[in-house]
Amino acid sequence: MATDPICGMSVDEKSSSLFIEQQGRKYYFCSTTCKIQFEKPEKELKSLKHALLVAVPLTIIVFVLTYASKDTLVPYVLFIIATVVQFYSGERFYAGIVDAIKNRSSNMDTLIAIGTTAAWAYSTTVVFMPSAFPTNSLYFDTSTIIISLILAGTYLQRMAESKASNSIASLMKLQPKKAHLIKGNSIIEKPIDEIKKGDILLVKPGENIPTDSMVVNGSSSIDESMITGESMSVAKRKGDHVTGGTVNLTSSVQIKVEKVGEDTMLAQIINIVQEAASSKVPIQKLADKVSSYFVPTVIVIGILSSVGWYLFGGVGLNIAVLIFVSVLIIACPCALGIATPAALLVSSGMAAKNGILVKSGESLQEASRIDAVVLDKTGTLTEGKPSVIDVIGMSGFTYDKVLVLAAMAESNSEHIIGKAVVKKANERNLKIEFPKKFNYTIGSGVTASGKDGTVVTVGNTDMFKGKFTKAMWELVLKLEQEGKSCLIVGVNGEIAGIISIADKLKKDSKQTIQAFNKSGKEVWMITGDNNRVASSISKELGIKNFISGAKPKDKLKKINDLQKHGKHVAMIGDGINDAPALTKADLGIALGSGSDIAMQSGDVVLIKNRIYDAYISIELGRKTMAKIRQNLAWAFGYNAVLIPIAAGALIPLYTINVYNFLPMFSGLAMAFSSVTVVSNSLLLGRFKIAN
Predict the structure, then answer these.
(1) Residue boundaries of the structural domains of the chain
(2) Is residue 390 annotated as part of the catalytic site, yes or no?
(3) pLDDT value at position 597?
(4) Which of 5, 9, 248, 452 is deepest in the core (most CB within 10 A)?
């Protein structure tokens, strides 16, 4: 069974003819009204407003005439006015019944239409056939007030939902509609849909970058706040990548299109947010199961209550009809259907606007359960941009000689530390020889052969066991106690020098660990660095548990161990090297930045590359699930309490006079229930994202 993304009712995909396909995904609807609301919310809201403007004044007239006039013509006037409200303003409910019959299902319109029609039909019969019933009471006021209240409640709900979806709408507005295509010596304005990969575009100051591209001519400052959340602009020049939707601030630039359509980063962000907002969480399964049986069950309860009181309770037919109407209206399952989607829409949209992409509702539920956190070090807790601090030559090797040999060995390496060595050699304008042979040992280091046959090894201390003198080892210990990592450089099997590397901690790393510790999470840092460096960093950050000298498989092992002990584990890493661990964890949180973000690596992606957002993600999951539980408790509790009341539970206490107001109260309560659920979800907006 699919779920209607608007009202939350269950829909059978096999029999439903009401669906649309967007971005490769099918959305099913219980009624045409919901389908229009999804496709064209402005049109549906306008139609709803018009129906409400007709219903409300006519309902007021019906109410006044019912209780203020005894003229013999009044019943006929009431019939005419109530009929307009019933079949014009209430037309959407009858259309919903037709859709339900076509799709062999039931929806919330079924209850409203049957209930109000019963009151209207009973009253119409009394007007034209007064001898048909023992009493001549009319209930046109009941049917019109119920329709007006439900329309008003739905209108308020739509307004609240539009506020909730503002985050997604603001993201969509960032997508430019047109681009300036450079063709020869001409500049042609073309719709963005017609732009192809490889096209050269002109972007003027003040314009949004049309799509993910590379600067090929000119330079400018780019406002990337929609991606990174940073207010400071970023200088871009030839060869730099720019992201679609960001704003060109200062100068015209020419860009070469690299990605278009659904491949762009902005499109992926929007798609992820929409997926999360419309996805299900495991807690929703109960609500879905109840909803699928809810409407027919309520109709049966309404019939049994009505007939039971009429046959065995001594009430008149008019009261029996009102019992039936009250049960159907008060039990309308709107609140139950939107309890989960409303909260997911608010939280996922709010998170995306602040650079946190949550891929599914299930990720939010899992985030709420997290009690253990495993963190990578390099690129996660640190800037991920290590730089060479010390180069110490030994056995006659100079600073530059050690550096140039290490750079030769690392010239083929993609490792971030190897790149730091090469960068330092380039800064000193050293000539780097390309190695004849190259071998990389995961987690240890590299070995390369120069053209003259010299074998250079660069790696950790494990690669040079038995080669250290006492003085060398004391020097390594001293550097590591300072929080530096040491690369040992060997030539033909002998130690030629030591290169120390330092990677600055991110400015929010300490704040993040403090937040995790304060919230009672068990925190682990796992790093390939040796014990002394790991100990130094852990002590500085306040991390009690760490594993040093770790290989990639050690992260998987630790996560597995924690899970075996009943822990729900979040893994926080760079999204590429840590992909296996991110997948193994209950919640994978991938850090990324700009267009290089690893969208597929984690359940949550932190676009700002800000580690504190990992803590925010877990807290947001906890807050969201709390709201969903509150919403479901309200929806279930509301029906559990009010259905028995509507079915006649108060008659022994207050007699049948309770039905002078109960049907109208039912409509008000149903509308209030839906608005309450959406409004409660909107309170998530108070949750503080940035810090």
Answers:
(1) 2-168+272-347+623-686, 196-259, 358-382+506-619, 387-502
(2) no
(3) 43
(4) 9
